[in-house]
Write a structure and sequence with these properties.
single chain; 9 helices; mainly alpha
């Protein structure tokens, strides 16, 4: 039998449980998971290399091109998420005492990215593409971006509850992140195709970079304070 309840009398926070074949399997803290969803939505929506690439393609060549580039980036993100989930799972199991260091280090990295985005506002970074077809361009741009891998490695641990096994939590967060990335990036590609004139202006990128930097710094400070 499968089911879900959102309460656990032995733990003060709300939790997710699954029942399978009569056994209770504890998965994760639902409060942290909801926080992860909100934070993921905000962070995916602000400008980054992937978002700017999708916007560039959709504003110059149309919505369909932006969506194809996004599909290539999604494949690359799936590979990166798998690597992050497996790597973090190994670290947590092998060096459990290092988990808090990973969380604080991740918060510090988010602050660093925010400051960098703020100082770099308005600059047009050159994005190299390796491939003639748009799908390949999106895939290689996404895969060759080490910041994306480091970001997820810094971001995911902030929402892991040590009360529960890390593997199911990482798996759920990985799938959630990927699904939300597809939805948000797809929406950005569509909006980019319909907002070519405004998004092509240099002042638009400057403002987006400043907003991105402020959000990342605030997120890093909040997460560091909570830990």
């Amino acid at each position: 039998m499968f089911g879900t309840i959102l309460y656990n009398s032995s733990h003060s926070a709300a939790c997710v449980h699954h029942y399978r074949f009569g056994y209770q399997i504890q998965m994760m803290n639902i409060s942290l998971y909801l926080g992860f969803i909100v934070a993921t939505f905000v962070l995916l929506a602000i400008p980054g290399p992937n978002v700017m690439m999708i916007l560039a393609k959709s504003t110059r060549e149309g919505t369909s091109t932006g969506l194809i580039v996004m599909a290539g980036m999604t494949i690359a993100q799936a590979i990166q998420i798998l690597a992050v989930v497996l790597g973090l799972s190994w670290v947590v199991h092998t060096y459990p005492d290092a988990f808090e260091i990973i969380q604080l280090g991740g918060a510090a990295y988010l602050i660093f990215l925010g400051i960098s985005s703020w100082l770099r506002a308005g600059r047009h970074d050159k994005i190299e593409s390796r491939g003639r077809k748009h799908l390949k361009v999106g895939f290689f741009v996404g895969l060759s971006n080490p910041k994306s891998l480091l970001f997820m490695a810094a971001f995911f641990p902030q929402f892991i509850d040590k009360v529960y096994p890390p593997d199911p939590q990482l798996a759920v967060m990985g799938v959630t992140y990927l699904v939300m990335a597809v939805l948000i990036d797809g929406l950005i590609a569509v909006l980019g195709g319909y907002s070519r004139s405004w998004l092509s202006a240099p002042t638009a990128k400057f403002k987006l970079d400043r907003v991105s930097g402020a959000v990342l710094v605030c997120a890093g400070l909040v997460l560091a304070f909570l830990h």
